[in-house]
Design brief:
There is one protein chain. The protein is mainly β and 521 residues long. Helices cover 8% and strands 44% of the residues. The protein has five helices and 33 strands. The protein has a 15-stranded mixed beta sheet that branches. Strands 2, 6, 7, 8, 9, 10, 15, 20, 23 and 24 form a ten-stranded antiparallel beta sheet that branches. It has a four-stranded antiparallel beta sheet with strand order 26-27-30-29. The protein is globular. Keywords: Periplasm, Signal.
């Protein structure tokens, strides 16, 4: 808007003109907070020495038991944006236990950025032991997002950002299970893992009709910084569009992009060593990979006695994830934790990520409270410190695993483990010292085939085992085919690698079942 020199305005008119200029600036998006603003901070941080955050948490809150910490809840009537006409609301986590460093959280509006201030009066501490006098200088440990996901009349928690760079998202009818992370550094490296931390967030105030929420985050750690933008789309399958810009301060041994973290205690392919009414107990039961060459791979997860690392070389990976394929409640029988409702997490890269590998890390655990499974993509070549790494991807949180796959490629529905045996002349089954795996393949392409179709197994095994039997038969219940594989392990102190797929006329019908039998099994 131009003002002519010879124009004359009253004071009221000048005020109106000034206001009009401001409105024009805002509506024309001349001011906007975006990923570049965070990236500038991340890049500047990377050029400086790392400053470890100081904990401001008093011992009384640091020593809280988990049950006591859970009692500290943000008051629902204090939910941020509760007075606005928007479907999204925010609540905050209080510092406590190992969440001992405050996280700065900001709100982004059309014209400003301002910090959301911590106030202990906004929290209900329940019966958690605390001294009100020690609270005034503390802060937020993280935040959660509320949205009417399952009913218009009820606000559900759909996302949580708490601890290091961890966050969780769920869709309709789901319960929290696996977590995503911003970045993983030196996972399963003898020198120890480094856990980058989201130190500051910027959350865009949503409009009344918005169906998505935008969150920016600044990541910091001794050897890396990063800028992130998350756009959360809640729904039956909630998705998160992620833009990331990473800057290394120093060389790292292993960099994990789009890491997923989950839990596996026991399941059909590795039954519980003690009697348990729950036949399966896990957040995820396998790693799925869609390679750039079109190959699909399914790797059932284990809870090994020793740390296990599996590497799958991929070029321009099309997708990978930790999935919960088994959705039958009868396999879990857990009315409290509902493992059958926990989402699968699928990473869909945007653009060409180039050469790299998918890494699966399996950590021994004795109980279900520990996340012991990690999966991520790692580039073959890392840039020099200070150079920008840009990776964009979409995260899917779903219970419809079949929708992730090509209809022309069948997938593994179940991996069942049993003692190997042979049927005697008197029809009694006699164990023969082998281990048996029954792998059920299902899919639209298989269901269209006649039950007498000529299906052949394609099986390979590493040097630590011998195949005793490999056979395929039609499964009338699943309308698919079941592979029976029996093997003898040569050295139980070593892992045993196996791969299998089904073919017809030498053409592949299924994804590749890739399994690693842990040592000492």
């Amino acid at each position: 808007m131009l003002i002519k020199k010879d124009s004359t305005y009253t004071g009221r008119q000048l005020k109106w003109v000034g206001a009009a200029i401001l409105v024009a600036l805002y509506t024309s998006n001349s001011w906007a907070f975006n990923l570049d603003d965070v990236a500038q901070q991340a890049k500047s941080l990377a050029q400086k020495g790392y400053q470890a955050p100081n904990s401001n948490l008093p011992s009384q809150l640091r020593e809280l038991k988990y049950a006591d910490y859970q009692q500290i809840q943000y008051k629902r009537d204090k939910a941020y944006w509760s007075q606005l006409h928007t479907p999204f609301k925010l609540e905050f986590y209080h510092e406590g236990m190992y969440f001992d460093q405050p996280v700065k959280i900001n709100e982004v509006t059309a014209s400003t950025v301002h910090e959301i201030k911590y106030d202990p009066a906004d929290f209900d501490f329940g019966n958690a032991p605390h001294d009100p006098a020690i609270l005034k200088n503390l802060g937020f440990a993280g935040f959660k997002v509320l949205y009417p996901l399952n009913s218009r009349k009820k606000e559900d928690e759909i996302s949580s950002f708490l601890g290091a760079s961890y966050f969780r998202v769920i869709g309709a009818g789901q319960t929290y299970g696996l977590s995503a992370r911003g970045l993983a550094i030196d996972t399963a490296v003898p020198a120890g893992e480094e856990f980058p931390r989201f130190k500051e967030f910027w959350i865009e105030r949503p409009n009344a009709n918005d169906k998505q929420l935008t969150i920016f985050a600044l990541l910091d750690s001794p050897r890396a910084t990063g800028a992130y933008r998350f756009i959360i789309h809640p729904g039956k399958e909630s998705t998160v569009d992620v833009q990331s810009r990473v800057y290394l301060r120093d060389n790292v041994t292993k960099l994990g992009i789009a890491p997923l973290t989950s839990m596996y205690l026991f399941g059909a392919n590795q039954p519980s060593p003690i009697v348990n009414y729950r036949n399966e107990l896990h957040d995820s039961d396998g790693l799925s990979i869609h390679n750039g060459n079109g190959e699909w791979i399914w790797r059932p997860i284990n809870n090994p006695r020793r740390l296990g690392v599996s590497i799958y070389q991929v070029d321009n990976v099309k997708g990978f994830g930790l999935l919960q394929r088994n959705r039958d409640f009868s396999h879990y029988q857990d009315l409290d934790d509902r493992y059958d409702l926990r989402p699968s997490g699928w990473v869909e890269p945007m653009g060409d990520w180039g050469k790299g590998h998918i890494e699966l890390v399996e950590i021994p655990t004795n109980d279900e409270t520990n996340d012991n499974i990690v999966a991520f993509w790692s580039p073959d070549t890392l840039p020099a410190p200070g150079k920008e790494l840009a990776f964009d991807y979409r995260l899917h949180f779903t219970r419809d695993e079949s929708a992730l796959h090509d209809n022309n490629v069948a997938w593994v529905q179940d991996t069942l483990r049993s003692t190997g045996d042979v049927k005697q002349s008197n029809l009694v089954r006699q164990p023969d010292g082998s281990i048996a795996f029954l792998v059920d393949f299902v899919g639209k392409n298989l269901s269209k085939l006649p039950s007498d179709a000529k299906i052949a197994p394609q099986v390979s095994i590493g040097n630590n085992g011998d195949i005793v039997e490999q056979s395929v038969r039609y499964n009338p219940v699943t309308k698919g085919w079941r592979l029976t594989l029996r093997l003898r392990v040569k050295d139980p102190k070593q892992v045993t690698e196996m791969r299998a797929a089904l073919t017809t006329n030498d053409k592949p019908l299924t994804e590749t079942w890739s399994y690693q039998l842990p040592a000492n099994e």
